[in-house]
């Protein structure tokens, strides 16, 4: 992919309506407003704040934040991660993937999702963006005579019109039904329990560590940086635990102590984190969806982030893909005079990258979260062999970095260098 020298390109400024102020929506608002477009963001939450658990910021996501001028501020509250480790409950190592196993100065970062939100949202507030909080959009309606689209609220109010609609309201978006794009949305039968705890001694720094027993039990410990806010820096760590969606009520009925005992038996290193949990209400449960659509646009609507391609978090790419979506959309709009041609170019530009991660995620997830016990046996046998093969090991690490876009000779995607010059206008 080639990166233009400026995003103020061939397309004249247009009126852009963005639905959702999460990672994809906020990043798109920053890119497009700095490119000279008139941007309005609609967010259904009246007072959005930094919530969530730990996520991985991969080299792709870091690069996009660098272009936006936000990289250093975000990384200041992150924890570097140099490797991803997985072993069985019996102590057998399945893989130990290191960023240094491929050329380039790559490293991952663990951070609280709220940190990413906080910096993006603050930049949106400071940007030339019309931010409408507490506004839900239920439907899109053609405004007629080439005037674009109205955004219709549940109360029937028509907002806009806007020349283009950027749908970035997450995996549960209802606005996919407002276009004729082919799609398939399936909830995953498995989710994960999450808890963000303190790690004052930094014992969990440096590695994302996972322990598995069969395909039904997985515990992970993700260094999570210093958390949202500007206060004193104290290391945090996110604990996650696989659980079937259908088993959530049974987990609650069994009680916290029974679960803690099970996790300690599976991953003794998690004990200091478990000791911080006093009630089940402190533990979050995350459900996941698999969203498949192509293209991700029609003549006036484009879908970004989880609204377009939600997937299992097995490869830890959700936030990174959303950030990359926003940057590629801005590049596509800069490269074309016609809006429909620009949106079609966006979908074509994203296809190989997103197809790869959706394919690998769908293929990989049942080996770690499913009721299919034989897949656990195959995983325990096959992964140590696969990581011993240089080609497959390099492919796995490229996949971890977010730069893979094929399993053959396909070249990895190119990362833009951090850009302190105001090619996008001054960073917020």
UniProtKB/TrEMBL annotation:
The keyword Oxidoreductase applies. The keyword Endoplasmic reticulum does not apply. Keywords: Monooxygenase, Oxidoreductase. Residues 15-353 form the FAD-binding domain. SUPFAM superfamilies: FAD/NAD(P)-binding domain. It comes from the Bacteria. This is NAD(P)/FAD-dependent oxidoreductase.
